[in-house]
DNA sequence: TCATTCTGTAATTATTAATATTACAGTTTT
DNA sequence: AAAACTGTAATATTAATAATTACAGAATGA
């Protein structure tokens, strides 16, 4: 996974939670995060496919939450961002198959990755977007 | 953090656990992982500073475990590799300070990163190198 | 003692991944 | 019909990783 994207998604969602249903443009959001608007729209595509936000095209359009912030868990956000990988990503190494350890390491390390990923999901499942965004003054 | 490095460290330690105290050269280790020997030596430096391995210079030198594999937890390995960051790394963004959310996001997201990191540490703390390496045939 | 085989580390280059930018068709509003 | 958006693709730029080269210093052993 790419660390920065989780943070970007949480930032977007926090802004939307604060916007109280009013559509926000990718340009406004990008200005708060200080990244490119196209990246914001790409990230919003992920969040939309995961059912957390909705978009409205055209003038005065933008993005808004698809459900109440209390019903959006940070674990969902994490899951949407990391897609089908785990915290540690996917092993992209191609170890030596002639070595017993090299031959089996990917299989066994995936088990570890899964354990770590499950632990993250459980911990982030305890925090809702509402709780997170309410921390802000 | 960099995902691949955790896997590299676990691979190195698994090889050493199997080597039964006999020093292994960085070249042999690198051949199993299929990466450059210099990268292996760099990673070993991290593991050595964390007290998990020892090195012997000179001819017939190499690297070996500094303690029993039962006493090396995967959480230690993870901690050594990720250094002073968390799973999600360090926020390197510089959000807009003129925005209330932008101004506070780094501070609040760090709290989330910490929670996720603690969860990983706890889950990996339950697995020793001995248990992990015994999975291999 | 001296060639050999290692480590440790720095410096440089090459490769890959992440991010930014440009562009534009399509949608909605006024 | 102009304006202000989204969605998405294509390309360029920048940053992060990894490989390579290089070499001093340590231990071994013929």
From TrEMBL, chains A, B:
Q: Which gene encodes it?
A: ywnA
Taken from the record, one Pfam family name reads: Rrf2
Q: Which organism is it from?
A: Emticicia aquatica
* Superkingdom of the organism of origin: Bacteria
Which lineage do the record's taxonomy fields give for this organism? Bacteria, Pseudomonadati, Bacteroidota, Cytophagia, Cytophagales
This chain belongs to the protein called: HTH-type transcriptional regulator YwnA
